[in-house]
Design a protein that fits this description.
Elements: E1 7-9, H1 13-24, E2 30-33, E3 46-47, H2 49-54, H3 60-67, E4 69-71, E5 73-78, E6 81-87, E7 98-100, H4 103-116, E8 122-123, E9 125-128, E10 137-142, E11 148-152, E12 156-158, H5 165-169, E13 176-178, E14 183-192, E15 198-204, E16 207-213, E17 226-231, E18 243-245, E19 251-255, E20 258-261, E21 266-267, E22 270-272, E23 278-279, H6 287-303, H7 310-333, H8 337-350, H9 354-365
Parallel strand pairs: 1-2, 1-12, 2-8, 5-15, 12-22
Antiparallel strand pairs: 3-7, 4-7, 5-6, 9-10, 10-11, 13-20, 14-17, 14-18, 14-19, 15-16, 16-17, 20-23, 21-22
The structure holds flavin-adenine dinucleotide.
């Protein structure tokens, strides 16, 4: 009797990465997604050195490096002055930079690699509330024909994002908090003297602005740089004194930030990874990167038939990072007069201390904890 394949729900970056890592170990999963076609959103713009390490063996890092832009460091601005700079070349790592690359391009590279391995994403298949998911039985519905099928799998990886139906099906609590105030982003071409090989953080009285180039691989020489302008308040473009928008935003979005973590990384045969397991603010650029690391750990354990260790190995790491990003975000927001005073006056001085600078560098680059070692 042929055994049914393992099932991955969700073909975002985390589900795709998981399928790729598993395939490298000779495990061929089925991967389904409710979307009609891949997302073209630029969302996560920064691939960190940890992700570049994890994707190196499959040759994907070289493909990403060929398209992305190396970000050498971060510059902090206040009142039109540079008040601090942090450089990634201080890292002792073979990838001492962040790589600016649109999430849609990262996903395309992951998807093409999967296709070369003979795995195609099955689109328009939606996991619906499935009472027997815990036992490895998921109900999939075709989003157009409404045809239903019962997928039986030895295990299911739920990479179905922040609103995970898998998480709801197995009743796993997702405690944490959501900020009331919406954050707003624009991807927009700017005429500016801002160094395009750096991230820029600007402390303003209403909070902060974050700017990073949007790199898709479609850029033409001579075209103005498209920047992600993100603020934790409405109309962030109004706060740009050092840059002029050229034309309309290519993407504008507003969203509410949450810091949350599942109480368990698995229930029965269902395992969680990526946004289905943890959410935090984009400060630190960790969401997608942390999810890809979940996927790598999961695949290593699957290879060794040790999935029962996934929660024990992964939950403490994800917990530490969600808490750390929440603290960093609270500091950056500066939402009361007192907090702003501390941020504006202390941050530039603190960043001159080696220990503070190293903690920030290691957090942003994903190198703030070692990877577990797995015997060959
Ligand atoms: C503005 C912004 C900036 C960000 N910047 C960064 C950054 O710089 N670096 C970083 O690391 N992260 C960043 N992130 C976070 C990052 O985008 C997410 O962490 C990442 O997309 C999570 O990937 P995922 O695969 O877990 O989930 P998703 O990307 O949400 O993918 C989930 C997939 O599952 C599918 N799906 C959902 N429900 C079902 C269902 N019931 N059945 C079948 N399929 C389903 C969806 O269609 C989707 O394709 C940013 C996020 C935002 C919004």
């Amino acid at each position: 009797m042929t055994q049914s394949p393992p099932l991955i729900i969700g073909a975002g970056p985390v589900g795709l990465a998981a399928a790729g890592f598993l395939s490298q170990h000779g495990i061929t999963p089925r991967i389904v997604d409710k979307r009609n076609e891949p997302s073209q959103l630029s969302k996560a713009l920064a691939v960190n050195p940890r992700t570049l390490e994890l994707l190196e063996a499959s040759g994907l890092t070289d493909k990403m490096l060929a398209i992305g832009k190396k970000i050498a460091g971060a510059t902090i601005h206040r009142k039109d002055r540079i008040v601090a700079e942090v450089d990634f070349d201080q890292l002792e790592h073979r990838f001492p930079f962040m790589l600016a690359l649109s999430q849609a391009t990262t996903e395309r590279i992951l998807r093409e690699d999967l296709a070369e391995r003979g795995i195609e994403v099955e689109h328009q298949l939606e996991l619906v509330d499935s009472p027997q998911l815990e036992e490895g039985q998921g109900e999939l519905v075709h989003t157009e024909t409404y045809e239903r099928q019962l997928a039986k799998a030895p295990w299911i990886l739920a990479a179905d994002g922040a609103h995970s139906i898998a998480r709801k099906s197995v009743h796993v609590p997702f405690p944490g908090e959501t900020y009331d105030r919406a954050w707003v982003l624009d991807d927009i071409a700017l005429a500016s003297d801002l160094a395009p090989n750096r991230a820029h953080i600007k402390f303003v009285d209403d909070g902060f602005l974050f700017l990073l180039p949007v790199v898709t691989g479609e850029e033409n020489p001579g075209e103005p740089t498209v920047w992600r302008v993100l603020g934790n308040f409405p109309e962030p473009l109004n706060y740009l004194s050092e840059a002029n928008p050229m034309g309309e935003s290519l993407w504008n979005s507003s969203f509410h930030i949450s810091h949350r973590l599942v109480e368990r990384m698995n229930v029965g045969k269902v395992y969680f990874a990526g946004d289905a397991a943890h959410l935090h603010s984009p400060v630190g650029a960790r969401g997608m990167n942390l999810g890809i690391e979940d996927a790598w750990v999961f695949a290593e354990l699957a290879r060794q038939d040790r999935l029962n260790e996934y929660h024990k190995l992964r939950w403490p790491v994800d917990n530490m990072i969600v808490h750390r990003i929440k603290t960093m975000t609270g500091f950056a927001k500066g939402e009361s007069f007192f907090k702003r005073m501390i941020r504006n006056h202390l941050a530039p001085h603190l960043l001159r201390w080696n220990s503070v600078r190293e903690t920030m560098l290691h957090t942003v680059t994903g190198l703030d904890h070692p990877l577990p070692e797995f015997p060959e």
